[in-house]
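P.,

For your records, the input lines for the assembly:
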Amino acid sequence: MQSSIHLSNVITLDQLPAGHSARVVSVNGTGRITQRLMEMGVIPGIGVKVIKTGPFGDPIEIRLRGYSLAMRKNEAEAIEVSC
Amino acid sequence: MDGSHKSLTVALAGNPNAGKTTLFNSLTGLKQKIANYPGVTVERKEGPWQLNGKAANLIDLPGLYSLEATSLDEQIARQVIVGEQAGIPKPDVIVAVVDSTNLERNLYLVTQLFEFGIPVVIALTMMDVFEKQKHQIDVEMLSTLLKVPVIPVTAKTARGRNELAKKVIEAIGTKPEIPYAYDAAAENAGPHGKIFARYNFISEVVQDSVWHDDHAKHRVSEKIDRVLTHKFFGLVILVGVLLLVFQAIFSWAQIPMDLLQSAFGGLQDLTRASLPPGILTDLIVDGVIAGVGGVVVFLPQILLLFLFISLLEDSGYMARAAFLMDKLMSRVGLHGKAFLPLMSSFACAIPGIMATRTIESRRDRFATIMVAPFMSCSARLPVYTLMIGAFFTGRYVLGFVSVGALLLVMMYAIGVITAIIAAFVLKRTLLKAPPPPFVMELPPYRVPNLRTVFQNMWTRAGLFLKKAGTVILTLSIILWALMNFPRQSQADIDNAAIEIQKTCNCTPEEAQAKAETEAKSNILQHSVAGRIGHAIEPVIKPLGYDWRIGIGLMSAYAAREVFVSTMSILYSVGKDEGAESESLLAGVRNAKDDNGNLIWTPLLGISTMLFFLFAMQCLSTLAVVRRETNSWRWPLFMLAYMSTLAYVVCLAVYQGGKALGYG
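Structure tokens returned:
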């Protein structure tokens, strides 16, 4: 399902520095958190931007579909993005 | 209303923060009913909605992101929609509340709603904000693409209210189309095929009906967040906000509290003056008015606390607080989402414990429940206020920081620190689990809707007053009776007077008066409560408590604030005539034991505050924990570990303080 996206430089979302944008390539995993991330709109093809990191390095704030979502780096590791 | 098939049932569904509560309040006014769904603590809110002459029962579903039924809220909402929730007929129409500033994600829930075969009408909220951000939305196009009516609403100006009612009536009996290509292909596209199909459809809809000016978007919230979630200043501001809240509760509330206090005092004097002296008058004045008044006096503080909590929640700041605190919370093994239930527990542990339902993992949820009662709830506030008022008023450090406010902040801080340590221990022993995942929306900042805020305050105040009028009234009467019976007969008093005259150089009148006074102060000693107090005295003596305070501590197990009622009743029992207007504070300050020594010292005041901070003294909380954990094990464990902790801490503080010469 993610084959249509051209992969230039794929990293996981937790590696993306604040202020940078990227496109979601895949959301890995099968558990409830994966499902929740997708229901919140994190699906392959969508553009995301890392806004900032929390005061102690975690969680991160990302913007997608015009709204802000906070998640831990642990969760962001499951999201592959290309930039 | 229940079970009647003739009246209309309309369900209100929407994402959290979409403006659902505001719309619900605006449609139903003040006539709403709040209860729980049977067997669970999901709040069931409903109210009448006049649909252009037709009456409907409007059901406010819990805030949802999805209907996949993974969380309790989602399960309940799903049951209501399919008509499986007892006492609620299947809805005739669903009004989907959609936040126009967050269209894509809000529409996700709508695409799920289409699948239930119930007509859907969309109420589009936050249009004013959206337009201010220089975006445009083609409402007609949106309606055409979604194949359902879309009505922009503004609660403040009642915009769209009639139109919404009209469309709901028109929609009755129609069947919605599922407007997106959801077919076998989507089903085959893996476990998340449906999610992809819905979002693909939504992306197309939004592309065709919305024009963004992306530079303007979120600018305001982002600017505010640059400060409020700043790595350093964000934390400083968070601490400042908490300090402001507590300072306000303690100092601003003082004026209305003093007014209430003197009002109840006046009522007592008036009642005593206008009723014939006797046991009934004593019961009314010292039992009912003193007991209920002693608790009602704290209404201003409770109103202020709920005012602040509603404001913080409604403005979007509470989510930022969770964002700021998550790393620390996760270090002790709790979820950032636990921050909100724990904050709510400052008002009352019961809504706090209920709010843990948003935490998905059972172990994390239980850990949060088990530490929530350490947050100083509003029922402890009367006790703190009494102790601080009696021993620390008018004292300042550095010239301007009131010792009272400082002590109050310390009580809250100690509670928080204890909760953190307890959670840390629990998550490594009984509730061992890896740190929970954290995915949470940061809603844009909004000016809180005052109506929603005040309605929330009003509801809480109503619940508090209802408790004062029922539970506390009953307990006050029972306590008064326990403290006044059995009493000495007149013959015993006369005999005592004769005995006194034998040993002292006084007239028979003086001896009689002395005997009467003694009998009065002995009433408590001989009463049922006095005997219970005496029985537990050996246990609490090492903490500095005498049998009288023991009565107060026992009575506080019904509800913590009853301690204050007990003190009011306690110190008006056997009070000298002519000192009727003596306030409770002076009563506590001047209370003497049998040897004429002052009972209370500042040290004892502090250790009493600590006892109330640590001990599990709330039957209602235990009942809710029983319901939420579905077992007696957890509430009993909570009772045992918190009470033990209270005993040990107070023993150490009191004995340590005495050894250091503060006794």
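Two observations worth noting. The longest strand of chain A covers residues 21-27. Chain A touches chain B through 37 residues (CB under 8 Å).

Regards
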